[in-house]
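Sample A.
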Amino acid sequence: MAKPESKESMVAKEIFSIHHDLFIKASLEEVYEAITLPKHLNNWWPLKSSGTPEIGAIYNLNFTSNYDWYGKVISCKVNESFYIEMTKSDENWNSTIFGFDIEEINGLVRLKFKHINWPECNDEFRQSSFCWAMLLNGLKKYVEKGEIIPFDKRE
């Protein structure tokens, strides 16, 4: 009979995830474009980006010359969802997947964000969770009010 796993070994195998939900006063199309098109991404997240919202496309997410990251679109449904798997980034982010599910509820768009497959609940994971919350608030302000937070002021 196999020996049961210890609590320590089970914790070591745990995968960590970040989840945030928010409501945005906008159309599905406006929110979908803001989370997929580089001309909009650049107004709330990276300094500059490139890519097209289609499965298999490569997105470049450039934050600085030292943080010039890449990811591959693994899921893309117009006005419904968009997910990227990180392929070249910080070692903590490599192989993580982030993305968005959106739906219209009572005239608002509910955005369900997740960033999954983190191997550790380390400093980078905790800081990224905080930053995502702040950035998603910036996304909401951008889509609802056209407010652009300068790159050097984004979390």
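Sample B.
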Amino acid sequence: MASTATEPTLENGSARYVAPSNGSAGTLAFTADARDHSGIRSLKVLVWPTSSKLDPTEAELRSVESATCRSATAEMSHCTYTLWATKEEAAEMAWGTGYVSALVTAKGGDATFVSRAAAFDVTR
């Protein structure tokens, strides 16, 4: 009996922005669980504001920064991506809703692109 190939999945994705305060940097953190029967090789992440009108593609995500992924089981990894922002950098950010696009790649070579893996709000 032959088994059918499955694509990697991204589950439980969430993003949260925390503004800088009292001399501490602000953060935008994205976390998700990536799963594939062969294990996870990488999770590429692109953060973008709605006002930018971006429409990221899978090809574009191949050359962006990677999240840090730690194996939880042979098939699942917990991944985290954090952006840090000073008070000055945060003041220049686009306010409103933003999105995280993600490209999860399995050790077996299969990949899954998620155009809107999570949403977040940047408020004053």
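B remarks: The mean pLDDT is 92. The CA atoms of residues 38 and 87 lie 42 Å apart.
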